[in-house]
Write a structure and sequence with these properties.
This protein has about 110 residues and is mostly helical. Helices cover about 75% and strands about 0% of the residues.
Length: about 110
């Protein structure tokens, strides 16, 4: 197995930024607002909506758990039956949390 992953840390970061921007946009926060008030962090604005904050946090945790298991398998070069079952479980959870985030921010 190759130690090269299709999803790099940079892509993971872009996915997380996309999710954050999507949540902010659904709350009515524009890029211009963020630029005009740099002292206010995106996480502070998101925290004003507990439901959005929770959904984003769940998406972040699910996506990172899925990514970290992929990373572990890529580094070891071994995919055990347990790892395979866990990857399926984490893939489903990641997709569910992404869908929930999409619905919430539609």
């Amino acid at each position: 197995m190759s130690d090269k992953m299709v999803i790099t840390p940079e892509i993971l970061s872009m996915v997380m930024k996309w999710a954050e921007r999507r949540v902010l946009a659904s709350l009515g926060v524009t890029d211009e607002m963020l630029a005009d008030y740099p002292e206010v962090s995106p996480s502070t604005l998101i925290s004003l909506s507990p439901a959005h904050e929770a959904s984003l946090g769940e998406f972040d945790r699910a996506y990172n758990a899925w990514y970290n298991l992929h990373l572990k398998v890529a580094r070891s070069g071994i995919l055990t039956a347990s790892d395979s079952a866990e990857l399926v479980k984490l893939s489903i959870l990641k997709d569910q949390k992404r869908e929930a985030l999409l619905v919430m921010t539609a």
